[in-house]
Amino acid sequence: MSPRDAGEGEGAALAAGWLWAALFAVGLSWGLTQFFMKPAMASGVHPIGAAFWQASVGAVVAGTALWLSGRRLPLSRHHLAFYGVCGILGTALPAAVSFEAIQHLPVGVQSLVISMVPILTVAMALAFRIERAEGRRIGGVVLGFSAIALIVGPDTSLPDPALAVFVLLPLISASCYALENIVIARFRPAGVDALQIGCGLLWAATAMLTPVALIGGFELMPARLDWSTLSLAAVTVFNILAYLGFVWLIGHGGPVFASQVGYVVTATGVLSGMVFLGERHGPTLWLAMAMLFAGVALVRPKQA
């Protein structure tokens, strides 16, 4: 091997190392948003108010990043409609529902159910005939739904079987994210990148959540400045950092590589709940987690 070849090999290994480090950093950030949601809801802010802060701060950060990059946000009628639909499905509805759900569910359970996004995306793509049915991917979908059945079944892994109904809430959030993926795949305007889409949908979500919060009289400001208020701020910061990091991962490692961040998100959510909140899970949840991970691995497209 020539010195040049050796140098290129070392450069590739270094680049791969940075990609893996970024993947774990993004997964850790997104996983911690699930953990910080729990104490954040003790701040007195309504779930819709919490979703408003997540959307509005994210919109400012994404808008600033877009401005610094020298690009603009296209605002044609087609673009605005696209941002509006993605704003509802990608932030406004799932964020509000997730903040409501975390008041009732353990962090680990919510993190696990949210990881259904890739499985639900494939299920919808098959239902809408966007993708051709393959045995491997159908098996992954079956494994994913079987895992959810384990969580809410008779031998539930929940601390109280009565909480099973609240599992529907993070499942709604995951379905929203999955449907957003379908909308982006089918109706994405030409010439816009992931950062522009993120900026547009966050501003659209802010525009929708603001009147809802004001007209409904929902609490927007924390009742006091304490740990719960700082947790709400942490949710917002970690969420936007994770999003921007995920955009970077897709651009540098490809969508298939970036999709592996879901494993880190779920593991971080489950472990942070155990370490910091004293959550304990029975064998049923660990079996469900293994089935979900296997299901996600099966539905992932093959790396080109």
Structural overview:
It is a single chain. The chain has 304 residues and is an all-alpha fold. It contains twelve helices and no strands. Helix 2 crosses helix 9 and helix 3 (77-101) crosses helix 8. The longest helix has 38 residues, at 3-40. The radius of gyration is 20 Å and the shape is globular. The mean pLDDT is 88.
- Average the pLDDT over all residues and give the rounded result: 88
Assign an overall shape: globular
Structural class: mainly alpha
Please write the string of helix (H) and strand (E) elements: HHHHHHHHHHHH
Quick summary of this structure?
This protein has 304 residues and is mainly alpha-helical. The chain is 76% helix and 0% strand.
